[in-house]
């Protein structure tokens, strides 16, 4: 069976699609038939929204469903908030098979279970073939803040920069697929709550946490530098990068620092808390390869620098727009 | 592009196409520019999807070692 | 396997050695690295910084994207704009602005079908899948990239493809070296010769030149080794061609590839290089046997009069007469996101390499 335009018509066929695929897997006591879901909240909350498009929708280590849940969970987690509820809107291209759609819905269910986040509002629309690429998902999430003060503008002079794992895996997997390459790694796509929760519960002075998404490490560090008005220095030698990602970058002449990640984050803590932080991270499956990669060297001026293997220092720039392979 | 790392031939398909591996990334490469044809296990230099030369690992490691020796030899001369 | 050739200790040791040799020679030296791949490696590994004050690297014209003249980019844009065309080329050429600052990427966003290929043979699949469209492959590159285009032409003929066309912008290394040595460009002590070009051509093409030339690989240690060999020649008052990339380059080169080039291409009487202008017998055109695939013969496009940005000094940068930082546009109006000159486009272009790997002196 394939999704037809009539599945988006709002009538019987729409209800059928929702019953047979969405409710079958995602039903819970709060996901109702009403126009809006009513919830009771008390305290400080974080809210985030994000849209997900990825080609291919199924990739090594995940799919667009898992990516959407993890994306929302991670945005909330790095703000010190425990993910509670989410909403999702699906824009489906006519012709997507029920089988593929159901696979995506199942992985949404499975990924949500890992964190305990609940889908409490959802919507589907179907657009004619060619007007979207298989399926787009827009998601929003709410989380309860359990640790305050974590902010992109809170980097302090002397802070140590830690990355939670090897960088660039998601970007390499996706680009490899598009170039018809076969690569020996999975996307890092994962919900980071289980790795971040123990950090929030410990007595650690976390100044900043940011998940690395599009634009990779280079973009995240440049954003942090601008938000906090600080200079950051990292060391090339210390940035964890797996061999296939290195090989992939060599083949296309691109830099691993600009490749996307979907389950990796950077954080900054004062020196006194570095060991404690690393001990906790290294104890978690998702972050066992966490590493100190550099530090905040000065406040009052922006800039991100990288010390190369042979000791000289250069700017770590964000990649310009589309990553294009170089020819010579 | 001038890819410095050698790639290993892991499989030879029809039509002069081989699967090559570079540090855990595998992709197709054309063998049209090589005569005689390389075999599985050979290391090749790649350029825009074409194997342009067969390399030997010993040669490569040898050239590094040789350079190291030159440096050492010149050091000794000085002392 | 991993050929771990970027051995840090060796590189740092070699650096001390080279500095001592320069001191022995009694003056700093200038070396031109011809190939853009080497420029990229020198900047990436910061070798220019390691040898700062002792060896100055002058960046040569060996970047195919950078030497593509304005009229060739304009030709690409006009071809891509034709109805019913799928226009294909290699990676970062898409970003080069033609006259009036439009690039192939801009043309794509206007709705034209412009694609970047990893291998030129992918154009065959595209042609087969799109029988109702004309597929054009815009071929750029030096001797290394020419044989793949030759294979493409041969296959197109074998398969009797009617909707695949090629534009040849293939250029040759020796005429460019000849130009640089004759143009009275600031004194050069030696040349680091291109690695992969030489894999194809062999060492024999450099015999005519009366200057130390060392063919190099692309690892940090390869480049230092080549600088070392040039220094030895200078100390011993020699001028010869040497091979520091013996693991890949031979005297005769890749004969199969040379044969394919001969079978499909003829030498053009003259060809426009960006920054250099017309250079006689410096480029290749598709020969008579394959002219049915030659887009320049098949399609009749009108080209706008090409126009360079008045302040852009790419032409001087390409031949080593100026440094990227001498340009008023550099890093301000001209950046990799929004390039004006071709040298800012390709990551082997001197300007892009300078921009990306700008050195920072930190007081810590």
Structure description:
- The complex is a heterotrimer of chains A (328), B (79) and C (364).
- Chain A is an alpha+beta fold and 328 residues long.
- Helix content of chain A is 30%, strand content 26%.
- In chain A, helix 3 links the parallel strand 4 and strand 5 (118-127).
- In chain A, helix 1 (12-26) runs parallel beside helix 3 (98-115) and helix 2 (64-77) runs parallel beside helix 3.
- The longest helix of chain A has 18 residues, at 98-115.
- Chain B is an alpha+beta fold and 79 residues long.
- Chain B contains one helix and five strands, in the order E-E-E-E-E-H.
- A five-stranded antiparallel sheet of chain B has the order 3-2-1-4-5.
- Chain C is of the alpha/beta class and 364 residues long.
- In chain C, 37% of the residues lie in helices and 18% in strands.
- Chain C contains 15 helices and 13 strands.
- Chain C has helices at 8-25, 36-44, 47-50, 64-67, 70-81, 104-109, 122-129, 146-158, 173-182, 195-201, 220-235, 255-264, 295-298, 314-318, 350-356; strands spanning 29-35, 55-62, 85-90, 113-117, 134-141, 164-170, 190-193, 213-215, 241-243, 265-267, 270-273, 277-280, 284-286.
- In chain C, the strands form four sheets. Chain C has a five-stranded parallel sheet with strand order 2-1-7-8-9.
- In chain C, helix 1 (8-25) runs parallel beside helix 11 and helix 8 packs across helix 12.
- The longest helix of chain C is centred in the first third of the chain and has 18 residues, at 8-25.
- The chains are: A alpha+beta (328), B alpha+beta (79), C alpha/beta (364).
- Chains in contact: A-B, A-C, B-C.
- Strand 8 (182-183) of chain A pairs antiparallel with strand 3 (25-30) of chain B.
């Amino acid at each position: 069976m394939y999704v037809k335009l009539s599945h988006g018509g709002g009538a019987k066929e729409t209800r059928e699609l929702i019953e047979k695929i969405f409710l079958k897997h995602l039903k819970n006591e709060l996901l109702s038939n009403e126009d809006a879901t009513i919830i009771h909240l008390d305290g400080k909350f974080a809210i985030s929204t994000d849209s997900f498009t990825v080609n291919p929708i199924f990739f090594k280590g995940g799919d667009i469903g898992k990516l959407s849940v993890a994306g929302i969970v991670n945005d909330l987690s790095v703000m010190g908030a425990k993910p509670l509820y989410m909403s999702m809107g699906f824009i489906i291209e006519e012709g997507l098979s029920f089988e593929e759609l159901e696979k995506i819905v199942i992985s949404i269910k499975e990924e949500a279970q890992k964190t305990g986040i609940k889908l409490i509002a959802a919507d589907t629309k179907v657009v004619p073939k060619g007007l979207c690429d298989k399926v787009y998902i827009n998601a929003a999430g709410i989380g309860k803040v359990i640790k305050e003060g974590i902010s992109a503008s809170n980097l302090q002079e002397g802070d140590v920069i830690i990355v939670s794992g090897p960088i660039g895996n998601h970007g390499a997997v996706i680009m490899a697929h598009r170039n018809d390459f076969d690569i020996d790694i999975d996307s890092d796509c994962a919900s980071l709550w289980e790795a971040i929760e123990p950090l929030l519960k410990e007595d650690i002075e976390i100044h900043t946490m940011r998940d690395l998404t599009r634009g990779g490490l280079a973009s995240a560090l440049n954003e942090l530098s601008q938000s906090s008005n600080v200079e950051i220095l990292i060391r090339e030698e210390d940035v964890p990068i797996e061999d296939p990602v290195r090989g992939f970058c060599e083949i296309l002449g691109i830099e691993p620092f600009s490749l996307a990640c979907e389950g990796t984050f950077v954080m900054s803590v004062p020196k006194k808390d570095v060991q404690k932080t690393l001990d906790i991270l290294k104890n978690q499956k998702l972050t066992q390869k966490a590493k100190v990669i550099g530090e905040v060297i000065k406040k009052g001026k922006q800039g991100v620098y990288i010390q190369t293997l042979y000791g000289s220092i250069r700017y770590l720039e964000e990649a310009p727009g589309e990553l294009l392979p170089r020819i010579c | 592009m001038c890819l410095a790392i050698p790639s290993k031939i892991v499989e030879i398909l029809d039509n002069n196409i081989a699967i090559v591996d570079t540090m855990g990334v595998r992709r197709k490469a054309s063998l049209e520019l090589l005569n005689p044809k390389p075999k599985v296990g050979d290391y090749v230099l790649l350029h825009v999807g074409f194997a342009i030369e067969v390399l030997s690992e010993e040669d490569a490691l040898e050239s590094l070692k040789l350079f190291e020796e030159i440096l050492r030899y010149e050091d000794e001369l000085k002392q | 396997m991993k050929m771990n050739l970027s051995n840090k200790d060796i590189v740092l040791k070699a650096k001390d050695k080279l500095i001592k040799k320069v001191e022995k020679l009694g003056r700093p030296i200038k070396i031109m690295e011809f190939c853009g791949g080497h420029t990229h490696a020198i900047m990436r590994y910061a070798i220019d910084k390691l040898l700062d004050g002792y060896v100055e690297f002058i960046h040569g014209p060996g970047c195919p994207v950078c030497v593509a003249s304005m009229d060739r980019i304009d030709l690409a844009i006009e071809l891509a704009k034709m109805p019913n065309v799928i226009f294909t080329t290699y990676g970062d050429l898409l970003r080069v602005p033609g006259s009036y600052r439009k690039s192939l990427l801009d043309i794509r966003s206007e709705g034209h079908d412009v694609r970047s290929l990893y291998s030129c043979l992918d154009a065959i699949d595209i042609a087969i899948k799109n029988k109702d469209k004309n597929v054009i492959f815009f071929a750029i590159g030096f001797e290394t990239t020419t044989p793949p285009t030759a294979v493409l032409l041969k296959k197109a003929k074998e398969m009797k493809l009617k909707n695949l066309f090629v534009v040849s912008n293939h250029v040759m290394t020796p005429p460019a070296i000849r130009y640089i040595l004759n143009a009275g460009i600031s004194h050069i002590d030696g040349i680091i010769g291109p690695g992969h070009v030489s894999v194809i051509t062999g060492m024999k093409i450099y015999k005519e030149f009366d200057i130390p030339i060392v063919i190099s690989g692309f690892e940090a240690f390869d480049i230092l080794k080549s600088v070392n060999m040039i220094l030895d020649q200078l100390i011993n008052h020699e001028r010869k061609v040497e091979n520091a990339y013996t693991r890949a380059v031979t005297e005769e080169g890749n004969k199969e590839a040379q044969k394919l080039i001969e079978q499909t291409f003829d030498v053009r009487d003259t060809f426009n290089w960006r920054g250099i202008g017309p250079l006689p017998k410096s480029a290749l055109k598709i020969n008579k046997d394959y002219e049915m695939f030659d887009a320049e013969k098949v399609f009749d496009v009108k080209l706008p009069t090409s126009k360079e940005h008045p302040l852009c000094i790419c032409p001087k940068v390409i031949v080593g007469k100026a440094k990227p930082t001498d340009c008023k546009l550099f890093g301000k109006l001209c950046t990799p996101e929004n390039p004006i000159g071709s040298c800012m486009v390709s990551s082997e272009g001197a300007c892009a390499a300078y921009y990306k790997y700008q050195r920072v002196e930190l007081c810590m």
